[in-house]
Amino acid sequence: MFLIFINELVEILDRAGVKVKLFADDIKVYVQIVSCHDFDKLQYALDLLTSWAQTWQLTVSVDKCCILNIGRMKSPAMEFCINGKKTINKYVMS
Length: 94
Known about the structure:
Elements: H1 2-15, E1 19-23, E2 26-30, H2 36-55, E3 66-71, E4 81-82, E5 85-86, E6 88-93
Parallel strand pairs: 3-6
Antiparallel strand pairs: 1-2, 4-5
């Protein structure tokens, strides 16, 4: 039954222009950020995720969510929210 729910979410997030990977009941949403528009795209996808979860009366464990930034520069301005709560930022410098 869960697969019926989650497949719809994948389609919604694909249309938002982000990449989606699933494993069991975990979802990873990612996008290469090269401009401010990409920040907005990712936040929009997170908003869609929140809306989808509320529609199906599911919860998103925001405390288990984080933003992983892989790159050369830290971006302190890169803050995202899920269900009105800020996510934790993690950095991997390459």
